[in-house]
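Dear support,

I submitted the protein below through the web form. The confirmation email said the job was done, but the results page showed an empty box. After a refresh the structure appeared. I'm attaching both so you can tell me whether what I see now is the final result or a partial one.
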Amino acid sequence: MAYLSDIEIAQACKMQPISKIAEKLNLSEDDIEYYGKYKAKIDVVKLNKKPRKGKLVLVTAITPTPAGEGKTTTTIGLSDALNILNKNSIVAMREPSLGPVFGIKGGAAGGGYAQVVPMEDINLHFTGDIHAIGAANNLLAAMIDNHIYQGNELRIDKRAITWRRCVDMNDRQLRVIIDGLGKKVNGVPRGDGFDITVASEIMAVFCLATSIADLKERLARIVIGYNFDGKPVTAGELGAVGAMTALLKDAIKPNLVQTLEGNPAFVHGGPFANIAHGCNSVIATDTALKLSDYCITEAGFGADLGAEKFLDIKCRTANLTPSAVVMVATVRALKMHGGVLKTELSTENITAVKQGLPNLMRHVSNIVNVYKLPCVVAINRFPTDTDAEIETVRAECEKLGVKAVLSTVWADGGKGAIDLAKEVIDLCEKENSFEFSYPLDCSIKSKLNAVVTKIYGGDGVEYTKEAEEDIARLTANGFDKLPVCIAKTQYSFSDDAKKICAPNGFKVTVRKVKISAGAGFLVALTGNIMTMPGLPKVPSATKIDVSDDGIITGLF
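What the results page shows now:
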């Protein structure tokens, strides 16, 4: 049987004018700003005084594998299913980065019959938010180097500049560079480098800010490096805040689009979860909670990364309490965690499912026992999954007191998540005792140890000499009471991508800790994680084309 590709399904969809989607949210013409027929930004100023009324549902997943889990697809399909059940639901998602779109991972608009559209726009330039974030980041970088060139009144130590330039593309060539070369008028030579835009602190600030005023305060706190006395220098001291805000003033408004079934969706903000905090914007989530009965949101990669940061950073910052968590898993991915090759996933293998199940169980246990939140497992079913394999997963989940529900949203859209939606509704009616995995008033090392031992299942943390020096300096400068954002491989609970399933007996090595004072957290870099990804041997970009009549092909 031949299946349509994601882009063919999306292009066959008859979209409603975005004004009609806005009407479903009781938004008037004055509340939205059009970006063509099918995209709009929401002016949230009028909505700031409205109370939150909706239930917040987090969709997360097991540790990712090449077999795929379908977290974004499930997020969209669940929201569609709730709307079928006459529940006013809005999906709140992140914006895709151009890096993975042209690299290997692909876009982030869902798949099959559970997508947000216009898919091509969302996966490419969209409304220009990520470009605006990159411009603000690089304006600050330019002002740093210009300040040094013009006399360096703030006595910035160019050897201690921590602010990097950014570009929203996978480009390993730019990871480590020397710039300012040539004649004196070209600037001051120094070591420098680029991050991918979604790893920029501006993206984190953008996603955690609650208003223009809060955005400005956060931008002002950004530490760009240190002076010759070892004291932090901020963007506020450089006088960069007003201009950076001007570049971001339109971008910070949430983007309104629609699902294939014509339901509202907010797609706004896009940090990665392996190198950043991996959640859509607080403003979009807050707006969705004010306009709907249910806000269905997702966090990036596995629950050890995206969900941990959503719960310990975003929820703490924005005073959010989730009503339920959906844990997405596939039989295929569990079999890969059980040691089966990708080429052999179509054959029934109960033994491999059982060997891979500890990965799912550790993630579920973290949600239920560490964060004290109600949880349901969504089994994203593939045609090759057998009833016996599905039953094996169901039985194991029952041992933790968690229900496992089949989901077929890729093939069936919202109808494929009706049972899942009913379970989510039931869970949302229950009281929960949401807790964070660590308190803020403990030391930096205590926070890192809590995440590694409680969430990852490791034995503790080891630190390089550089990390020890970073922690001492950050503590001396009063940054030790902030939450931690651990940059770690997405492919393992550990910092070693080869340790699949649910490894034990490992320690995580922290090689560097840096401050994101504007975002309001500390970033701990582990293993060989990099803030600028590279392209694969055969990038997805080689398959993308545009026909003479402007139709994009090859975009998934």
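Response: this is the final, complete result; the empty box was a page-load delay. The first strand starts at residue 32 and ends at 34.
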